[in-house]
Model the fold of this input.
Amino acid sequence: HGQGIAAALMTAMEDQARALNLPEVRVEVRLSLPGNVAFFRRLGFQTVSEQPHPRGPAYWTVILGKPVTE
Done:
């Protein structure tokens, strides 16, 4: 387990999105990195879509979103 730096950065991003009155934040993660996908899911992100990565059809990404409005 890490030091919580990534989670703190994501919290700061969510706070900034709220300050800008944005309804949600989104991240794009390669499906070949399941630990990264799991990290964002633990933070409350849900799948918005899956799509091929620009490098080609051998790679896929998942778009994850999280509402930030209260």
